[in-house]
DNA sequence: CGAGTCACG
DNA sequence: ACGTACGTGACTCGA
């Protein structure tokens, strides 16, 4: 990995920090204005955290004359005196930098930009990436392939990265040095440099873009308009001086060994702490205070901070694009071309492929073409005609290679391509390497889109889809209309990138011991989900519609009543802001209303429930909310998602979203169809079998997460309860309340149930007290009682956290990992979340693994037994099937056996099944 | 586009 | 002193 050098322009950043707080300066108790100090140090540390440089330096201007004043006495002459607060801040900042072990560099007669220019130029491009942190645009002239600029964050936004390429594009110039000429024409008000009259940024850029340089421009001065020519004639003598003034010096004699002198090293804590204490920088003290871990010196080597050993790749920039490579992307135009391609594919052990389609909905999308990558930078594009009969016959030419078991297929989100190709009767066999899923296992919390992966792992920026079909939203373009040359580059690039990513990611999977999880679980699941999504679910839109009409009437009625009670005729009840104001300001139903983090009144159900007796409007609002939710999220929306082609609803199961390993479902989300609430569960009645000859079968794991808790913690008491087949919540109640099992009250059981769930989530006394509406002391007692009973559970939870601390991750029973870098955070809120994740992720994730295994096995049996019945929905611990009635007994047997046999735990896995003419009945 | 709310396991 | 149970997706409002 290249070394990375971060160079900071001290005064520019200090000024910026100072003025950022100008309206509300920070002061310590002695009255010292610490805005500039804090702002600058924070920006510096943030940059170090973000860029993770191996080398760093801060450049200061030296007060007094510089060589620029010698050649131009008016240089910066108009500048106002430096504010007193900044003057006093600078020595303190220098002390701080020293304590942080960040080198300071200054040189008499020169400015910070000259120092940075010199170092950036001197740093060997093969050895160093250089980041210049400054808000000053002039640094643009220094940009190179290995030198980028970081402009500090402006309020709200992240800091802005500028690369040489982007910079040149912005000014439409060939190389960054040309910016000197632009500046010389443009001038610089803040430096008191007068440019050419009537020439600003835009004109200067245009002229340099056009003529290449000032010299050439002046030679062609007659081509300018008369008035412009006059302005240039007048400025002619000034230009050489301007050029000198705006040119950043790159060859100061600094007597500096970059590699040795600027190396990042840990702060000198003993010097740093007193300084931070005096300044009263509490957050920084927390961060750099002498915590135990710091004393043990757990720094990642070469880092200023203690960072988790396993962290996302460090940020990259200066991304390469297609133009930086000599790629061999070809179009297969004729049948002969395709035959040649197919021949090449047959010779491959593996190839990457991608489909381009007319849309993102795989059911209705039509193929526009296919791309295949055979090796790095070598790919083919096969265009597919609009006529679907012709299309199919061309695509069919590839059926054999796709179906070949011995040829591996690589792709990004293969499920989509698999579905599209299924429309053309193409089956995909052989090992599938899905780069998205591989990365999901490697970094479950990260994003996994191709652009991101390319950037991180290949240092490459793909052609943006917007270049092809325009921004979505307005005048949505179509893949069909894209220029053939361009679509070839785009599609081949995608396949090529998938191919290249596979090589990187496969090695990483092996390194992490994740290949087995990938090939046993995630890879076979691709095909299963493909079929489930395609199967779809039948919706009884008619009954939904009728139910919706009834609810709508109630809603209108409620709205009227609520507005009347509120005395606000145009109240929007769906606006929490308006609602809160009505309830708490106007009706004053309470004075101690809870506020949200944006200081609005909190009007969620939990809060409103507290005031239900204060005013009759409250219960009406809750009722309104409930009905509105059902209507807008389900009743009115689901029928719109019925596919015209199939008459069914086709959700999309996302296999790479949930960081614990679960699936998620969207478009629509079929995993949150109401069931708890009486009104809501009516909606389940609209999910029906595909025909009269079918039934819905729902099979769900009983208490799978608690069983996993028992299994993983090896808690004898809990294991025993499950083995005896006891009602686990009642059994828990009996034990923690010390009553016989048959005397457990409803209330006790309910409390125990909440406590059981609490364990799975990584409980806190506060959380439990909130849920149960009891005091924290009571909650604490309850938890103590719980741990007293289930001693193994307590030990297991502690062990999870300890493991996460030690290894940086926790694991499921199938070896799925979740990395928890925050487990060592100094921020206890952040750390607390990581600790609860350490407890919850192995449980939730193992349950996800188990049902995935079950789905794969059920699917295989359905195929091998050639059943007409279909698996259609998964809801985390439940599978729903559209069962062909004559197969009912067989399907029930297969499903139960596959689900219960998906893993062998210390407790039996139990599955409950139900059948019915709709999803509600089946439950 | 974020915040608030609420549906599910 | 501070904020607190885990994981999702969809809708609505309003800057």
From TrEMBL:
<dbReference type="GO" id="GO:0008408">
    <property type="term" value="F:3'-5' exonuclease activity"/>
</dbReference>
<dbReference type="Pfam" id="PF01612">
    <property type="entry name" value="DNA_pol_A_exo1"/>
</dbReference>
<keyword id="KW-0238">DNA-binding</keyword>
<dbReference type="InterPro" id="IPR002421">
    <property type="entry name" value="5-3_exonuclease"/>
</dbReference>
<dbReference type="GO" id="GO:0008409">
    <property type="term" value="F:5'-3' exonuclease activity"/>
</dbReference>
<keyword id="KW-0540">Nuclease</keyword>
<feature type="domain" description="5'-3' exonuclease">
    <location>
        <begin position="3"/>
        <end position="265"/>
    </location>
</feature>
<keyword id="KW-0235">DNA replication</keyword>
<keyword id="KW-0808">Transferase</keyword>
<dbReference type="GO" id="GO:0006261">
    <property type="term" value="P:DNA-templated DNA replication"/>
</dbReference>
<dbReference type="InterPro" id="IPR020045">
    <property type="entry name" value="DNA_polI_H3TH"/>
</dbReference>
<dbReference type="InterPro" id="IPR036397">
    <property type="entry name" value="RNaseH_sf"/>
</dbReference>
<dbReference type="InterPro" id="IPR012337">
    <property type="entry name" value="RNaseH-like_sf"/>
</dbReference>
<dbReference type="InterPro" id="IPR020046">
    <property type="entry name" value="5-3_exonucl_a-hlix_arch_N"/>
</dbReference>
<dbReference type="GO" id="GO:0003887">
    <property type="term" value="F:DNA-directed DNA polymerase activity"/>
</dbReference>
<feature type="domain" description="DNA-directed DNA polymerase family A palm">
    <location>
        <begin position="680"/>
        <end position="887"/>
    </location>
</feature>
<feature type="domain" description="3'-5' exonuclease">
    <location>
        <begin position="329"/>
        <end position="510"/>
    </location>
</feature>
<dbReference type="InterPro" id="IPR002562">
    <property type="entry name" value="3'-5'_exonuclease_dom"/>
</dbReference>
<comment type="function">
    <text>In addition to polymerase activity, this DNA polymerase exhibits 3'-5' and 5'-3' exonuclease activity.</text>
</comment>
<dbReference type="InterPro" id="IPR002298">
    <property type="entry name" value="DNA_polymerase_A"/>
</dbReference>
<dbReference type="InterPro" id="IPR043502">
    <property type="entry name" value="DNA/RNA_pol_sf"/>
</dbReference>
<dbReference type="GO" id="GO:0006302">
    <property type="term" value="P:double-strand break repair"/>
</dbReference>
<dbReference type="InterPro" id="IPR036279">
    <property type="entry name" value="5-3_exonuclease_C_sf"/>
</dbReference>
<dbReference type="Pfam" id="PF01367">
    <property type="entry name" value="5_3_exonuc"/>
</dbReference>
<dbReference type="InterPro" id="IPR018320">
    <property type="entry name" value="DNA_polymerase_1"/>
</dbReference>
<keyword id="KW-0239">DNA-directed DNA polymerase</keyword>
<dbReference type="Pfam" id="PF00476">
    <property type="entry name" value="DNA_pol_A"/>
</dbReference>
<comment type="similarity">
    <text>Belongs to the DNA polymerase type-A family.</text>
</comment>
<keyword id="KW-0548">Nucleotidyltransferase</keyword>
<dbReference type="InterPro" id="IPR029060">
    <property type="entry name" value="PIN-like_dom_sf"/>
</dbReference>
<keyword id="KW-0227">DNA damage</keyword>
<keyword id="KW-0234">DNA repair</keyword>
<dbReference type="GO" id="GO:0003677">
    <property type="term" value="F:DNA binding"/>
</dbReference>
<keyword id="KW-0269">Exonuclease</keyword>
<dbReference type="InterPro" id="IPR019760">
    <property type="entry name" value="DNA-dir_DNA_pol_A_CS"/>
</dbReference>
<keyword id="KW-0378">Hydrolase</keyword>
<protein>
    <recommendedName>
        <fullName>DNA polymerase I</fullName>
        <ecNumber>2.7.7.7</ecNumber>
    </recommendedName>
</protein>
<dbReference type="InterPro" id="IPR001098">
    <property type="entry name" value="DNA-dir_DNA_pol_A_palm_dom"/>
</dbReference>
<dbReference type="Pfam" id="PF02739">
    <property type="entry name" value="5_3_exonuc_N"/>
</dbReference>
<dbReference type="InterPro" id="IPR008918">
    <property type="entry name" value="HhH2"/>
</dbReference>
């Amino acid at each position: 990995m290249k070394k990375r050098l971060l160079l900071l322009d001290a005064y520019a950043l200090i000024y910026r920090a100072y003025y950022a707080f100008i309206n509300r300066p920070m002061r310590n108790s002695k009255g010292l204005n610490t805005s500039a100090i804090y702002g600058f140090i924070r920006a510096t540390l943030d940059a170090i955290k973000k860029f993770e440089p191996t080398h760093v330096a801060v450049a200061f201007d030296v007060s007094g004359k510089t060589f620029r004043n010698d050649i131009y006495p008016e240089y910066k002459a108009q500048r106002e005196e430096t504010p007193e607060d900044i003057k006093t801040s600078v020595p303190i900042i220098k002390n701080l930098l020293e304590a942080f072990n960040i080198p300071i560099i200054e040189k008499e007669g020169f400015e910070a930009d000259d120092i940075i220019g010199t170092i950036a130029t001197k740093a060997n491009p093969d050895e160093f990436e250089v980041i210049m942190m400054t808000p000053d645009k002039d640094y643009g002239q220094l940009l190179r392939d290995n030198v980028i600029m970081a402009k500090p964050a402006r309020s709200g936004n992240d800091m802005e990265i500028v690369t040489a390429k982007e910079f040149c594009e912005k000014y439409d110039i060939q190389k960054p040095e040309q910016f000197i000429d632009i500046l010389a024409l443009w001038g610089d008000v803040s430096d008191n440099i007068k440019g050419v009259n009537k020439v600003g940024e835009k004109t200067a850029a245009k002229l340099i873009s056009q003529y290449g340089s000032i010299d050439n421009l002046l030679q062609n001065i007659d081509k300018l308009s008369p008035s412009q020519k006059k302005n240039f004639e007048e400025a002619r003598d000034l230009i050489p001086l301007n050029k000198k003034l705006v040119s950043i010096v790159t060859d100061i004699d600094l007597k500096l060994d970059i590699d040795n002198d600027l190396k990042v090293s840990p702060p000198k804590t003993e010097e740093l702490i007193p300084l931070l204490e005096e300044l009263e920088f509490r957050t920084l003290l927390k961060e750099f205070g002498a915590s135990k871990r710091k004393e043990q010196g757990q720094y990642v080597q070469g880092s200023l901070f203690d960072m988790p050993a396993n962290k996302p790749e460090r940020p990259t920039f200066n991304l390469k694009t297609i133009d930086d490579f000599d790629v061999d992307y070809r179009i297969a135009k004729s049948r002969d071309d395709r035959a040649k391609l197919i021949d090449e594919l047959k010779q491959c052990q593996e190839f990457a492929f991608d489909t381009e389609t007319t849309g993102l909905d795989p059911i209705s999308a039509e193929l526009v073409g296919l791309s295949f990558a055979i090796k790095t930078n070598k790919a083919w594009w096969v265009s597919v005609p609009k006529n679907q009969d012709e299309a199919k016959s061309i695509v069919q030419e590839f059926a054999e290679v796709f179906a070949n078991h011995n040829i591996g297929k690589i792709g990004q989100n293969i499920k989509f391509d698999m579905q599209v190709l299924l429309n053309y009767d193409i089956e995909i066999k052989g090992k599938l390497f899905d780069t998205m899923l591989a990365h999901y296992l490697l970094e479950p919390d990260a994003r996994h889109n191709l652009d991101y992966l390319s950037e991180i792992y290949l240092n490459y920026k793909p052609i943006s889809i917007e270049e092809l079909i325009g921004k979505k939203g307005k005048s949505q373009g179509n893949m069909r209309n894209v220029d053939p040359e361009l679509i070839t580059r785009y599609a081949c690039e995608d396949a090529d990138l998938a191919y290249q990513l596979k090589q990187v990611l496969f090695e990483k999977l092996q390194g992490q011991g994740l290949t087995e999880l990938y090939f046993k679980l995630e890879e076979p699941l691709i095909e299963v989900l493909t079929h489930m999504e395609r199967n779809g679910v039948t919706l009884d839109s008619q009954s939904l519609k009728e139910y919706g009409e009834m609810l709508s009437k109630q809603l209108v009625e409620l709205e009227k009543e609520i507005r009347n009670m509120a005395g606000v005729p145009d109240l929007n009840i769906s606006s929490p802001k308006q609602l809160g104001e009505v309830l708490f300001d106007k009706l004053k139903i309470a004075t101690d209303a809870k506020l949200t983090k944006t200081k609005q009144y909190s009007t969620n159900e939990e809060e409103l429930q507290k005031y239900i007796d204060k005013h009759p409007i409250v219960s009406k609002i809750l009722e309104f909310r409930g009905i509105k939710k059902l209507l807008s999220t389900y009743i009115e929306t689901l029928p719109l998602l019925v596919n015209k082609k199939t008459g069914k609803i086709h959700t999309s199961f996302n296999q790479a979203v949930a960081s614990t390993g679960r699936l998620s479902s969207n478009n629509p989300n079929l995993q949150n169809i109401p069931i708890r609430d009486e009104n809501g569960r009516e909606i389940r009645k609209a999910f029906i079998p595909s025909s009269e000859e079918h039934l819905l079968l729902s099979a769900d794991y009983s208490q799978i997460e608690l069983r996993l808790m028992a299994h993983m913690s090896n808690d004898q008491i809990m294991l025993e309860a499950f083995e005896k087949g006891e009602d686990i919540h009642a059994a828990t109640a009996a034990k923690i309340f010390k009553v016989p099992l048959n005397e457990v009250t409803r209330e006790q059981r309910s409390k125990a149930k909440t406590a059981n769930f609490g364990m799975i989530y990584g409980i806190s006394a506060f959380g439990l007290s909130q849920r149960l509406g009891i005091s924290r002391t009571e909650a604490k007692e309850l938890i103590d009682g719980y741990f007293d009973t289930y001693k193994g559970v307590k030990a297991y939870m502690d062990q999870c956290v300890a493991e996460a601390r030690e290894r940086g991750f926790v694991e499921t029973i199938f070896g799925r990992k979740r990395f928890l870098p925050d487990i060592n955070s100094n921020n206890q809120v952040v750390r607390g979340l990581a600790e609860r994740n350490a407890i919850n992720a192995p449980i939730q994730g193992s349950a996800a693994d188990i049902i995935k295994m079950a789905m794969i096995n059920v699917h295989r049996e359905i195929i091998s037994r050639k059943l007409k019945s279909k698996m259609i929905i998964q809801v985390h611990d439940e599978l729903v099937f559209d069962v062909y009635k004559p197969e009912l007994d067989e399907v029930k047997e297969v499903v139960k056996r596959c689900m219960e046999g998906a893993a062998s735990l210390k407790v039996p896995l139990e599955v409950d099944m139900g059948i019915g003419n709709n999803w509600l009945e089946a439950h």
